[in-house]
Amino acid sequence: TIYFPEIKTTAKDADTNSNISCAKEEITLVDTVSFKGLVPNQKYEVTGTLIDKETKKPVEADGKPVTAKASFKPKESDGTVEVTFTFDASSLKGKTVVVFESLAYKDKEVAVHTDIADEGQTIYFPEIKTTATDAASGTHYAKPEKELTLTDLVEYKNLIPGKEYKLTGTLMDAETEKPFDVDGKAVTAETSFTPEEANGSVELSFTFDASALSGKTLVAFETMTFEDHEVAVHADIKDANQTIYFPEIATTAKDKADGDHFAKTDKEITIVDTVKYSNLIPGKEYALTGTLMDKETKEPLQADGKPITATTTFTPEDASGSIELTFTFDGSILSGKTIVVFESLTYQEKEIAVH
Predict the structure, then answer these.
(1) CA 67 to CA 47: how far, in whole Å?
(2) pLDDT tens digits for 261-295?
């Protein structure tokens, strides 16, 4: 008698119990090998190797191919045996791997299953990247308003079309590296979607009270799940694309002539407003606009029918610092008046901070 063994394999992630896995530091894949035509009660060894579907080369961890072995003695000629792979998969984001199996008898290969296109042997590792912006400005800057909406554009890769996935976002305080909360509750958002293609994007929106966030920085963390199992994360506290900055400005206005808060009603006076800023991105250009306000009427102070304003642009070298804004105007009509300097900071013509 001559035996011609046959094997087929079905690979699954141990956590998700599906062919979708998460590219994290330690995962376990289980490959169920179905065999036919073996000699009962004889010892066989099955060896599995993970193959990168794109390169068609073995997947490596710590510089070595990821393999697994299982020895067994079948009681019958047909049956199944499991081969388990436990390894660091953190480098496999966005990758697809295929499990190849080889069956040996007395150290001689007697059957293989190495079909790179076999879905049953295939494991998908999704990847997500996110870009968080303020919905109003379309930038990474936001004003600390009572009701604020942030939009996180999540780009995904290597999903299985037609399957339902869920995205959950959490806003993190960049300084404490803990979830940002309002009234004791973490600010989160979630959405479910079914992609038509393996690669694409989906938006997630956070609407919350941001009034206490002057000078703070938030980072959007995202988690993707499939059937309640985590299959992808993007949680880098230092990723600028995930970050929203809430700049803060504070101003001190003084009469240039004597450096105090009192000014003479001369024909020409100069007010210098020193604006301290924090939480800006160094190397970016900003515009600062000041307006003189009549404290009694709460209206802009005017000269020749036009509001008295001053504007300057600057590019900070550091996130925090100060800059001066100068107003020179006819102060002869201001006897007994009190004026207050209002300031507005803009980036790409979008207002990002006020005082």
Answers:
(1) 7
(2) 565 666 678 888 999 999 999 999 999 999 999 88
d(CA 353, CA 327): 20
Amino acid identity of residue 291, one-letter, is T
Q: Tell me the C-alpha distance between 313 and 54, whole Å.
A: 50
Write the single-letter amino acid at 178.
K
Contact 307, 289 (CB under 8 A): no
**Residue stretches of the chain with pLDDT short of 50:** none
3-state secondary structure of 120: helix
Q: Extract the runs of DSSP E, i.e. beta strands, from 73-147.
A: 79-87, 96-105, 108-113, 122-124, 127-134
Distance of CA 235 to the CA centre of its chain: 6
Q: State how far the Cα of 316 lies from the Cα of 307, in Å rounded to an integer.
A: 28
With a CB cutoff of 8 Å and minimum separation 6, the contacts of 134 are 140, 141, 142, 143, 148, 149, 150, 151, 244
Structure tokens at 154: 């999540």
Residue pair 126/224 in contact by the 8 Å Cβ criterion: yes
- What is the phi/psi pair of residue 241, to 5°? -70, -25
Task: Provide the β-strand partners of residue 299.
Answer: 294
Angle, CA 175 vertex, CA 172 and CA 181 arms, to 5°? 40
